[in-house]
Amino acid sequence: MEELDARLREHLQKTLGEPRLELAERPTRLTGGFDTRIFAFRLAGAPPAFAGPLILRLLDAHHDPARALHERATQNALAELGYPAPRVLLASADPTLLGGAFLIMERLAGQPLPKVSLGVMASVVADFQARLHDLDPVAFLRAVTREGLEPKTFTFDAHLAHLADRASRGRLGGLAPGVEWLVRHRPPRPEPRAICHGDFHPYNILMAAGRVTGVLDWPHAIVADPAFDVATTLVILKLVPMEVFGLAAPLRWLANAARPLLVGGYLRRYRRRRPLGRGKLAYYEAAACMKVLVRAGELHGASTGETTAASVLFESAYTERVLRHFRAITGIRPSLPPATPPVA
Q1: Which of 17, 39, 51, 323 could form a disulfide with 27 if both were Cys (CB 3.0 to 4.6 A apart)?
Q2: For the chain, which residues score pLDDT lower than 70?
Q3: Which CA distances in Å does 164 have to 71, 159, 183, 186, 278?
Q4: pLDDT tens digits for 176-190?
Q5: Superfamily of chain region 2-106
Q6: SS3 for the chain, per residue?
Q7: What confidence tens digit (pLDDT) does each residue in 263-291 have?
Q8: Which CATH class is domain 111-330?
């Protein structure tokens, strides 16, 4: 941690042109973040934009470093449009500076929605997802273009191609039939399209004093059929094991029993806000399952024996559940390689 402190301070002194800048509060690791490291910190002697509570989001080595720039463009474009995404103040794709590509952003007040209120989860998730889908996707794409990104990288076609590339590079041949099914059955390009988060779930929503203060975690954002976003949320609400959320055993039992009510309430509430065709949801649920399976395969191939949030989430019982769901939709059962034995 001391090395990170020194590298962060030195980088900010140089980048911001403030040689007297110091860390008023050293970076403190926060829980959350399945495949990134997240730290809270404060600065002294910094320019006004950097004077408040800050977050450092440090990407793990397996990520494409350019993801940091993608997230910066996405979040700042959404903030411009009035959506409660945290503004990114600084981002770098250079992994040598802090040990990984990174973003520094404003720290928003609040706690994850499930820690604040279980009773309003369905309505809050539906309302803020529908609010995202109501934004102007053309204005969003114009904004990310000004940041130097190609609009074509924000398409569902690009998302599918990225999954196929990751499966190929990870030697996940058992997923190939499933990827091919997704390509063959891809629905026509929808009109109108919407800005889609790609991982919209209760733990990515912050609340304080009875209101939503922020929506987090934007690396998967694209402009696509809003059914893609809704289906991704459905897969999370239906299949993610409650153990991942750190609930005590009695609460896990209660939460599992309440899943159908949560899923049904979320869908009803969303449909009151926006029309949602039934025909495409199954296809996009299959696509959401494939994203999970590609990540699980990558983790299987890089097992280190270290217990992380990602390794807990993608344990065998969860991936088996996702495999079954994909097969129920497509009739195809893709397969994953056995996990690599942990490094001694």
Answers
A1: 39
A2: 1, 32-34, 242-248, 251, 301-316, 339-344
A3: 21, 9, 10, 14, 26
A4: 999 999 999 999 888
A5: Phosphorylase Kinase; domain 1 (3.30.200.20)
A6: CHHHHHHHHHHHHHHHCCCCCEEEEEEEECCCCCCEEEEEEEEECCCHHHCCCEEEEEECCCCCCCHHHHHHHHHHHHHHCCCCCCCEEEEECCHHHHCCCEEEEECCCCEEHHHHCCCCHHHHHHHHHHHHHCCCHHHHHHHHHHCCCCHHHHCHHHHHHHHHHHHHHCCCHHHHHHHHHHHHCCCCCCCCCEEECCCCCHHHEEEECCEEEEECCCCCCEEECHHHHHHHHHHHHHHCCHHHHCCCHHHHHHHHHHHHHHHHHHHHHHHHHCCCCCCCHHHHHHHHHHHHHHHHHHHHHCCCCCCCHHHHHCCHHHHHHHHHHHHHHHCCCCCCCCCCCCCC
A7: 999 999 999 999 987 779 999 999 999 99
A8: alpha beta
The residue extents of the domains of the chain are 2-106, 111-330
The answer to whether 229 touches 197, Cβ cutoff 8 Å, is yes
Q: Tokens at residue 297, please? A: 């395969």
With 0-12 / 13-18 / 19 or more C-beta atoms within 10 angstroms meaning exposed / middle / buried, residue 260 is exposed
Q: Do domains 2-106 and 111-330 have the same CATH topology?
A: no
- Can you give the pTM of this predicted structure? 0.92
- What is the per-residue burial (b if ≥16 Cβ within 10 Å, else e) of 100-129? bbbbbbbbbebebbbebebeebbebbbbbb
